[in-house]
Fold this protein.
Amino acid sequence: MKITIVHAKWRAIVASCAALTVFVAAGLFVPRVAAEESPDEWKASDEAGTTTPFPLGTDDARAQGFWHGVSNGTKRIWDEGLQDVYASGYFYHTPYGFPSRKRDEYNDNAWGGGYGRTLTEDNDNQRMLLGIVALDSHRKPMFLAGYAWLARWDLGRDLHVGAGYSALFIAHSKSTNYWPVPLLAPVASIGNNNVAIYGTYFNAIGYFLVKFSFDR
């Protein structure tokens, strides 16, 4: 049993690293080409768009390479974005991921909180930096930190739905033994620029939380 658990942990770590590698590789191609183009060509490429922080960087930073652009773009999100406060709330342990006995034992109340920044673009898409601490399924602290991007659609009356991804690091009591491990996960949202509900999915668990945003 112990060997099986250890193997499962390493499979989760390898899968997470592979996912992050795919994310980085996808981001590397477009920016390196675009950085060599003229401003007009870059604008057209940006509209087609990469979803990493890279296009938010200055021309000089992007010209120096992918990581310079990402770093500068990340700084812009932090400097210009609204301040966010997160209220962590609920885990849904899926029936196909966990047997009934385990689901009865696990903690569903993911109490916790977090802080971050959100930059909303002219097209209403959002780029977010966040850090969250919450109780995990075993009632021990879980740590999440990283970046998220969402495309959003206006439903009217200041209500938007969104869908995108997050590229995070997770430190979990069981699956990572509190080692920070990369995690690529889908994200969906409903709300407005001030209050929104977010949901994500990883390790066969649905995770739901609320974000409150404030002017700086």
Q: What stands out?
A: The first helix runs from residue 2 to 34. The two ends are 51 Å apart (CA to CA).
